[in-house]
Design brief:
By secondary structure, the protein is α+β, with helices and mostly antiparallel strands. It is built from nine helices and five strands, in the order ααβααββββααααα. Helix 1 runs antiparallel to helix 6 and helix 2 crosses helix 5. The two termini are 51 Å apart. The C terminus is likely disordered.
């Protein structure tokens, strides 16, 4: 197989500099691919919980000034997550804030302004797992995920071109590629449960209500 010199030179340049440019995020998503799969091993599902009480100014509550209420909560309870919920139910305001490693649930009573803050702080592994998922990380981080996926795909494609340009190792490389691909497909077909398996393994009462 003859590889065009320009294609070979382009692939080599892209492969080297692209992998160096995206090395950190590639390592991050490689490591978190494992930690996401074994969250219990790393204590990523057990938060440190704190409950605190305080007071929100009655004038803010009376005016239902959502913006200033949120600002007051951020300043006084050091809340840094994005606002994910703001509701007024049963005579109180309920607010939620989340970021990759922490969450806050706040209740502000009306008209007293009494405030209860429930906070959960997760460990480092929970933080990077949520970054892997793009959970609570905002649109900017989703761009990082998209670009990382593009970097990885281009690194794989240019690496394949470089491998095929090595005549003495080409056959072994193609064999390894075929074996790896068939291995992944075989594991999926043989070991990953499908919808039928999920229904058949369910308790009798669950199986009778499963969608047809």
């Amino acid at each position: 197989m003859h590889i065009n010199r320009k294609l070979l030179s382009f692939s080599r340049t892209v492969h080297i500099y692209l992998t160096m440019l995206g090395l950190f995020v590639m390592m991050l998503f490689g490591i978190t691919g494992f930690t996401v799969n074994h969250e219990d091993w790393f204590g990523a599902t057990t938060p440190r919980v704190t409950e605190t009480d305080g007071q929100t100014p009655a004038e803010l509550v009376a005016k239902k000034d959502a913006l200033r209420i949120v600002e007051h909560l951020r300043q006084n309870w050091r809340i840094t997550g994005a606002l994910t919920g703001y509701d007024e139910l049963d005579g109180k305001f309920s607010l939620g804030f989340k970021e990759p490693g922490r969450l806050w649930e706040v209740e502000v009573d009306r008209p007293s302004g009494r405030t209860r803050v429930h906070a959960e702080a997760f460990n480092f592994f929970a933080l990077i797992n949520n970054l892997h998922r793009g959970r609570y990380a905002g649109p900017g981080w989703r761009w990082v995920i998209d670009l990382s996926a593009l970097f990885i795909a281009l690194a794989c494609a240019t690496g394949l071109v470089l491998w095929l340009a090595l005549p003495k190792r080409r056959q072994l490389g193609v064999l390894a590629l075929v074996v790896g691909t068939l291995g992944v497909v075989g594991i999926y077909l043989a070991l990953v449960p499908g919808p039928d398996a999920a229904v058949s393994n369910a308790p009798p009462e669950a199986a009778t209500t499963a969608p047809q």
